[in-house]
Design goal:
heterodimer; A: about 210 residues; mainly alpha; Rna Polymerase Sigma Factor, Chain: A; Arc Repressor Mutant, subunit A; about 0% strand; B: about 230 residues; alpha+beta; four-stranded antiparallel sheet
Chain lengths: ~210, ~230
């Protein structure tokens, strides 16, 4: 995959999808989460309509196989369905939560497939705990942020883009990245930290590193 | 490690690319709901989520919507534990991956054991018993699934001499204890032990200290006895 091309910096498709999603939602995420928790019959249909395409896009970008992506999308939505009761509807960010679950399913899959077995499975589980999405900005997936992050990725230098893509799309550990790129681990760690710091700053988030 | 030492690693942790020992340390901090680490990882997760919002869009087949909705309709009511495992337990199982020692062929079997643990925890029919309120200092929980087995999670377990081991027992309402496996604690005096397989004729779970290899019958007084809510 060409560096910088994996994220939608040249294709406005994601932006159109987000705009459509925002237009079609007709309700906020809090109400949608509450309806899922109440097991309302149409709640999952509305939830899928809002996030299904995004979840599929994230997963297929990682596993690069449509049949596998469909399996993992189904797994993602089942996981949401079975865990939404623990989600704080009034304070949680529904979109980031489901996309985190989607990416984790995809990374878990490719790690298993490549025999980088799943010692991370349970840690991935920890990382998608609903508590981590409390008070997270709910508009994180809006079109403005998508543009900002795509532009910020495009501004990273080549090495930073490379490590971000290896991390995001292949789930390579920093050690694995260092081996693949033939670079010292410390150098790779620096590229990763700098890249993520730049992305966070672009998003206007509090910088913690 | 301190939160300050872990702070630079929050983004890598959120991306799932952080190695040990930092990864384990952060999981541990999250497991005890450390406010600094929860806030730091949450902030980093926001960045990762924003990256997800910037991937190229791909159009799923229309059939996928029907498939997802159909699968949800088939889904049984969430179990008491299936809604979400208590965070501390999830983290503890995560940490157990490290203490088991994952190398080579052994990895697959150990991973399977943890899958069994999660399966037991998610069984709606499982007994969920806490202990420690009256048996301090050891405390923890036992999940007993009649069809799938026992998960024992303990903390503050007593230090035992080399040549000794902990042994889990199934206690019937009448009759002799049934041995259910031996285990060791970790350096932090915690243990996660999984005994897969059906559990019958059991009213309580007990733990004793036994000679290495275990005993056919208890040779010491149990320091943990957890009575099941529903006798099996």
């Amino acid at each position: 995959m060409a560096i910088g091309m994996a994220f939608g910096i040249t294709v406005p498709g994601i932006l159109l999808a987000l705009e459509a999603s925002e237009r079609n939602s007709g309700q906020n995420d809090e109400e949608l989460a509450r309806r899922l928790q109440r097991r309302e019959p149409r709640a999952m249909a509305d939830f899928y309509d809002r996030f299904g395409r995004l979840a599929y896009s994230v997963i297929v970008a990682i596993v690069r196989d449509s049949a596998t992506a469909e399996d993992l999308v189904q797994e993602t939505f089942l996981r949401v369905w079975n865990r939404v009761h623990a989600f704080e509807a009034g304070r949680g960010a529904l979109g980031p939560w489901v996309l985190t679950i989607a990416r984790n399913r995809a990374i878990d899959h490719i790690r298993s497939r490549s025999a980088r077995m799943d010692r991370n499975v349970y840690e991935l589980d920890v990382r998608e705990h609903p508590s981590l999405f409390v008070d997270m900005e709910r508009d994180l997936l809006n079109t403005d942020h998508a543009r900002v992050i795509a532009t910020a990725i495009a501004k990273l230098n080549t090495n930073q883009q490379k490590v971000i893509e290896l991390a995001y799309y292949e789930g390579l550990s920093q050690t694995e990245m260092a081996e693949r790129m033939g670079e010292p681990l410390g150098t790779v760690k620096t590229w990763v930290r700098t890249a993520l710091k730049n992305l966070r700053e672009a998003l206007g988030q509090e910088v913690t590193a | 490690m301190t939160c300050e030492e872990l702070r630079p690693d929050y983004p890598s942790y959120a991306l799932g690319i952080l190695g040990d020992p930092e990864r384990t340390e952060i999981s541990e901090h999250l497991g005890r709901q450390c406010e600094t680490c929860v806030a730091g990882v949450a902030s980093a997760l926001a960045t990762v989520s924003a990256m997800s919002g910037a991937v190229k869009i791909a159009e799923p087949p229309k059939s996928l919507r029907r498939r997802v909705l159909a699968s949800v309709e088939r889904e049984p009511r969430p179990s008491r534990f299936g809604v979400f495992l208590p965070w501390a337990i999830t983290a503890m199982l995560s940490l157990a991956m490290l203490t088991i020692g994952i190398t080579g062929r052994r990895q697959i079997g150990d991973t399977e054991k943890l899958r069994q643990a999660l399966s037991i925890l998610n069984d709606p029919a499982a007994n969920d018993v806490s202990f420690g309120e009256t048996q301090k200092p050891s405390r923890g929980r036992v999940f007993v699934s009649p069809g799938q087995g026992v998960v024992f999670i303990g903390a503050n377990l007593p230090r035992i001499d080399s040549g000794k081991t902990f042994e889990l027992w199934l206690l019937p309402a009448k009759g002799n204890p049934v041995p259910a496996g031996v285990f060791q604690s970790q350096s932090d005096a915690t243990a996660v032990f999984v005994r897969p397989g059906a559990v019958t004729n059991t009213a309580a779970i007990a733990v004793t200290v036994e000679p290495e290899g275990g005993s056919a019958q208890p040779t010491t007084t149990p320091f943990i006895v957890a009575k099941l809510q529903r006798q099996l």
